[in-house]
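in:
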């Protein structure tokens, strides 16, 4: 479990194809004190398991499933990636709950300056767009951001100067693809509501929720 608050960036220093899978070596731009084999690290929003590490460099395996759903397969040597170590009990939850289980990809369709910030618009598949709400949360390449606006095919976020400076998101340009993880709470709510609808002929409305103590 992660928060979407990136600890720093790293550089991809080695790529090892392993059949349909892959092993990556990443050099972090910060100290990895206490890192352990088997620990989870978010790499551009993708939860990967540490296979080995030495000083600031760690290796992690990437499965065929992960390669097919994320932008990890498009990384090249020297590319910069966002890194976050797993949340510890007692840590401040400054972003939102992020699993590191990427739901899909989105494409940058515009990048504009607004004051000192950068406003990005992304095109996203309709099956993911339905989980977006204005002022809700989304993880983009592992970065927790607030949704400014959204519709059936796109959404917009504002990136403040600090976030643009300390993460790789400030390097994005029109046409780039990113990893997207929607707010997991929305998916649970959707599943709950669908289950409730299938168990009542009248469906779920305000009266139904009030009757059962939800509102």
């Amino acid at each position: 479990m992660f928060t979407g608050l990136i600890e720093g960036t790293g550089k991809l220093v080695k790529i090892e194809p392993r059949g349909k899978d892959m092993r990556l070596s990443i050099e972090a731009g910060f100290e990895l004190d206490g890192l352990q084999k088997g620990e989870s690290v978010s790499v551009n929003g993708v939860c990967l398991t540490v296979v080995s590490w030495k000083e600031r460099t760690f290796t992690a395996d990437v499965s065929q499933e992960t390669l097919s759903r994320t932008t990890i397969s498009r990384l090249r040597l020297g590319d910069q990636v966002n890194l976050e170590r797993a949340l510890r009990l007692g840590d401040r939850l400054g972003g939102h709950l992020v699993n590191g289980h990427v739901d899909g990809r989105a494409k940058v369709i515009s990048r504009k300056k607004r004051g000192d910030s950068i406003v990005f618009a992304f095109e996203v598949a309709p099956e993911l767009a339905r989980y977006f709400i204005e002022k809700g949360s989304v993880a983009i390449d592992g970065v927790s951001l607030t949704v400014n606006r959204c519709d059936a095919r796109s959404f917009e976020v504002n990136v403040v100067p600090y976030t643009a400076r300390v993460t790789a998101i400030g390097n994005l340009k029109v046409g780039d693809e990113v990893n997207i993880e929607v707010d997991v709470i929305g998916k649970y709510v959707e599943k709950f509501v669908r289950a409730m609808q299938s168990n009542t002929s009248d469906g779920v409305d305000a009266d139904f929720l009030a009757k059962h103590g939800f509102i």
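note: The CA atoms of residues 44 and 141 lie 4 Å apart.
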